[in-house]
TrEMBL record:
It is a multi-pass membrane protein. Its main location: membrane. Belongs to the UPF0126 family. Pfam families: Gly_transporter (PF03458). The keyword Cell wall biogenesis/degradation does not apply. Residues 10-83, 105-180 form the Glycine transporter domain. It is found in: Cell membrane. The chain crosses the membrane at residues 6-27, 34-55, 67-84, 105-124, 130-152, 164-181, 187-208. This is Trimeric intracellular cation channel family protein. Keywords: Cell membrane, Membrane, Transmembrane, Transmembrane helix. Signal peptide: none annotated.
Amino acid sequence: MELQLSLLFFVEAVGTIAFASSGAMVAIKKQLDLLGVIVLGVTTAVGGGMLRDIIIGNVPPNLFKDPVYVLLAFITVMILFVIVRRNQMILASRSIEMYEKFMNIFDAVGLGAFTVVGIDTAVLAGYGRYHFLIIFLGVITGVGGGLLRDIMAGETPYILRKHVYASASITGAVLYAYLQDYMNNDAAMLIGAGSVILIRILATRYCWNLPTATKK
């Protein structure tokens, strides 16, 4: 049990750093002030978990009862803000392209991490036998923060238009939800998260997208 909790903490910490960086960078590109960067960065990191907790009636959400991930997100955002503030060349076209390639990988790790953590939280809350519910909670934990980020930034939510983002989360959530009945929970978690990461990286590399009603 202690090993599982340690793995959960590590996975969720990785996801927090990844999503906080993603949200902060969106705010920086929008030329928001320091408060705006902090709000978008922290919301992206912990917003999905907040939505999950509200849905299962875990109120107040864990982010208020145990703000360790809020603090981690805040530190991540501040570090990124200072780096960009002191080195404006980072926002140059070549630098930002390299950063975005790196962040795509980091974001994929975050999505995979939060998807399986969302399911594990639901299972620990006693909802393990409701597969549809825990899959939904896993996906909302994975994509909810980004959804809130895009709404606040005035953008069409990324999950609705780019590189099978939510679809990757759904695939990993389904795998984890069903595999945990047949194998060690940690192994099922790693397979679920790994599938999300792999799909996201391949989708970015090969520009996979779901079809739209109108042809471009």
